[in-house]
Predict the 3D structure of the following.
Amino acid sequence: MKHTKIGLVGLGTVGTGVARILLENRARISRACGQDVQLARIADVDITRERNLNLPEGILTTNYEEILNDPEISVVVQLIGGLDVERKIMLQMLEAGKNIVTANKALIATCGKEIFDTARKCKCSVAFEAAVGGGIPIIAAISESLAANEICSIEAILNGTCNFILSSMEKTGGDYSTTLSQAQKLGYAEANPAMDVEGKDATQKICILSQIAFGADLDWTHVSRQGVESVRGEDFQYAKSQGYTIRLIASAKRVLENSLEVCVGPCWVRQGTQLAEVDGAFNGVSVVGDAVGHLFFYGQGAGEMPTASAVVADIIDTICGRTAITFNTLNLWNDETCGKISFASPDNIKGEFYLRLVPKNAESQEEIIRILEENEVLVAVTLPNLAGGTVPENPAFAILTNETSEGTLCSVLNSLEQKNLLQQKPVKMRVLR
Ligand code: HSE
């Protein structure tokens, strides 16, 4: 019987889940691959920590080069975080002719072209289903199952930490800092939560989906991005008063033939919609294709076993040869498409917005509304003052705009700041209809 040996680099949370599935379900996985599949070697910097795994004798090493230099290992599962070390190891593994399975979204979003070019040159494949949406098979869905469609838009909750924080604030009325501490205590948020709460993690993920759905090679650091740190309890109260809630939404939408509107930030989402119903640390992805119409994907976007589920599916596809077919036909980050699709100009991005503004003094509010109206940011509703939301030294007020462009709105908000009419940076959220 044919036999494939797998090397695993990184025995952290997800790596442990992958090892567990490969060891405990070897017979089933071998059947799915039509050949014997063996987890042959595992490299990690720490091989003494107890992981509650029944590992075969001698499988662990601290030296990843034992995997690199083993000619019998043809599939390498790389599950270490970070950029520099992971990049170096991945390029070495590809040069050595190994097919890669990874969950590292930061690496794919940052060095996608280099990695895919190297893989093409070395006639290897790279599979990365677990990089976006954890256990949700969104990459396979967009790249394979929806191949008949031109994708029109993606609107997604791609960060479980932020969704946990926002849905808890919605339920408990708690403030941001207390809710973040709670999320950290429960293990949903990292000790250093910056990548999540600043929206960077979701931005990297929507850029990866944009490459697959639209062929866009976007620099994720240039995406219009807002985190969840500025969301306050009163924003939820305002949203609720109009039938909405707040979620961190990562979206990508074709605006003109070769331009894409990509943004990440807290948005007003209508209560009762599928995105609004995504609760806790779950993820949800709404996709519109021209033939299929609207689809919604929902599930656990992180965690040991959901993410391991996606990684092992990639391992099986790689061994069966399915990954190689998709890898070649999709030809991601290729020279022809790279650079062809760019970010839409803010003037071409239209929408309605919620604004929470803190005027310098009581008189400034009228002046602010006059300037907004004069500059075509039409005020649809001035939201009623909230009990407790307005204190004399912080007389915040909130409005909903009619449709305007992102460009117009940003320049008007800048001018309000320059005219010294505001006490604090304005809070702006897109309203999803
Ligand atoms: N930190 C991510 C999240 C999980 O909170 O969704 C890994 O992508």
